């Protein structure tokens, strides 16, 4: 696979090379190439059905691409999955958790699965539960968690082995503002210490305030990528996004029947 970096440069945190996926007649991802340098926070944005989740699923080894390749810190996700996955923490779309475990048990399970010693798992679990505002609910069954709490425990599970790359599908969805702020602080700190984050979101203001790089996907193709300033080109990200994607809200004449008077 083509590496766009010079031989002696550090490998990118994530490199996607002409990834493609089709579901029956539907082309979900159409030859998408993207490089995410280490130490950056990239926001992946695009309209509903653009192919973001499919891309992230292929990037993280959850969905096998029809064509193309993905590499995490130089390790091919499909040819060397153990090395790639050891370096990556993933918050997938529509997380399926073992919900008959308590939050603390779920973290312990994930920590032990990552070969961490028992005491280290306990230490990291306690600090993650605390940082994410779940300290009082570590003994509650995940089945009894709210949607936002499930998102937070899934994020904690993705962090417990201190990965170098975090791939997060809509990490702020259903999360309250206080927890959202805590998650932002965790992600900023993670990147400041050399980690890399790739997150998808529909909230342009959030991407604008948190990310230093943006990739815009539409119809399974990358239509823009670069630093935040390069992509927004003097406008707000929201304005640029609407211009690029061309799905400006219509006046709603077809909904005239909805007007009551
Ligand atoms: N398992 C599947 N079977 C059939 N079609 C699928 C499947 N998964 C995704 N698709 C289709 O592929 C396209 C891309 O879907 P995907 O979930 O990747 O988009 P997305 O950008 O994440 O959307 P959203 O912002 O709404 O979450 C859509 O047209 C979707 O209907």
UniProtKB/TrEMBL annotation:
GO terms for molecular function: ATP binding; ATP hydrolysis activity. It comes from Agrococcus pavilionensis RW1. It is a peripheral membrane protein. GO terms for cellular component: plasma membrane. Its main location: membrane. This is ABC transporter domain-containing protein. Residues 14-244 form the ABC transporter domain. It is found in: Cell membrane. The keyword ATP-binding applies. It comes from the Bacteria. GO terms for biological process: response to antibiotic. Pfam families: ABC_tran (PF00005). Keywords: Antibiotic resistance, ATP-binding, Nucleotide-binding, Transport. InterPro entries: AAA+_ATPase, ABC_transporter-like_ATP-bd, ABC_transporter-like_CS, ABC_transporter_ATP-binding, P-loop_NTPase. The keyword Chloroplast does not apply.
């Amino acid at each position: 696979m083509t590496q766009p970096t010079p031989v002696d440069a550090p490998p990118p945190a994530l490199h996607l090379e002409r990834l493609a996926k089709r579901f029956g007649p539907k082309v979900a991802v159409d030859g998408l190439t993207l490089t995410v340098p280490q130490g950056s926070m990239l926001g992946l944005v695009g309209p509903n059905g653009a192919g973001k989740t499919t891309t992230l699923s292929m990037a993280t080894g959850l969905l096998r691409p029809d064509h193309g390749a993905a590499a995490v810190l130089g390790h091919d996700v499909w040819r060397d999955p153990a090395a790639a996955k050891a370096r990556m923490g993933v918050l997938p779309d529509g997380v399926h958790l073992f919900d008959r475990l308590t939050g603390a048990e779920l973290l312990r399970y994930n920590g032990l699965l990552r070969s961490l010693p028992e005491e280290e798992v306990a230490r990291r679990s306690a600090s993650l539960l605390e940082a994410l505002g779940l300290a009082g609910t570590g003994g509650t069954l995940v089945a009894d968690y709210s949607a936002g709490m499930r998102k937070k425990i899934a994020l904690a599970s993705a962090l417990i082995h201190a990965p170098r790359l975090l791939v997060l599908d809509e990490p702020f969805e259903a999360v309250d503002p206080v927890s959202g702020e805590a998650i932002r602080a965790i992600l900023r700190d993670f990147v400041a210490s050399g980690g890399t984050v790739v997150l998808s979101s529909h909230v342009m203001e959030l991407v604008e305030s948190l990310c230093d790089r943006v990739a815009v996907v539409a119809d399974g193709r990358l239509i823009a990528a670069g630093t935040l300033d390069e992509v927004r080109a003097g406008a707000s990200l929201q304005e640029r996004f609407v211009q690029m994607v061309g799905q400006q809200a219509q006046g709603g004449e077809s909904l005239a029947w909805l007007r009551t008077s």
